[in-house]
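Sequence in, structure out.
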Amino acid sequence: MVTIIKKHPKSLKKLNIMNSNLNERSAGIDFLRCFSVLLVIASHYGLIVGLPLAGTHGVAIFFMVSGFCMSYSISGRNGKQFLIARFWRLIPILIVCATITELIEVIFPEIRPDRGQSFSNYIQNLLCLPTGNIACDALYGLLKGHAANYNWVDGAYWSLLVEIRFYILLWFFYYISKLSLPTIIIFVATLGLLSPFQWDSIYISKSNDFLMYLPFFAFGMSSSIYFQSKKNASLLMIYSLGVFVFISSIGVASISMSLNQNNILSYASCFAIYFSCMMFYRKGKNSFLSYIGIISYPLYLLHQDIGYILIATRDRMSLEIMASLTVLVIFILSAFVNAITQKYQTMIRSWLFKPV
């Protein structure tokens, strides 16, 4: 099991899945990111009503992509470097996107008053999300006797909380507990079995909105071993998929989505879409897909509330035309956010990857 992990840095050089260079990325990963974020946007803008796939299916696929990428990201780094790398990848862009969204909601409060958030909520998003709400929950627990309670600046931020908590869980298992990657995958998937119990706590915010997504992360991590060596990885993938089938058969609901016998096939298709794409296209590259893959994160953070506000101004214009114009605006904003943060992130990345 240890040898599997040690091979990852060499594979990472071949695959370059984490590189922001347009010429050094995986077409499979970038396609899945593009597909996922466009599926989410189309769903939120009302363009795919009645289709079997919706926005939450896109998020599920993205969680698998994240599991795949993080299994490489932990290799060749110590725990501090891993956390710093995740922080500088996510938080500067979050700050810029949240600020843009908050400004638009403040400037045009009459268009969609239901989307506006207070300045206090804005500050709590910036302070609490970077630690997966853990620090804020601890502070709130000491001062008020309950977990942090605030509204998202943008409704899409719920999945960012799930993502960051997965990073923290992975950090704990790999760097603190010193577990091998296959063992971590088993633990992560197994924790998903607890989701049907609707575990909730007044001391942990949104505690029932995390466990049910773990099989998706575990499947992505399993696939990283499968495509690297195939040694015992198929069993890990089958186990992760089995956990998903089990909790879906029982039925589990969270704040953001639910899994049950009625939708088990549609969400199972997410595994098929992910695996098929990675099987055939993971080693290719495409400059256009690479760029969209790079800006997919700010695109996701910016699209929902700003999009709702823009679409609400369409008057007699058709939904399809206004939604298309809105997507264009969000793309331009995302490119802007990426441009102003890229140089800063590149500087941090060069520091992180100095030989130790």
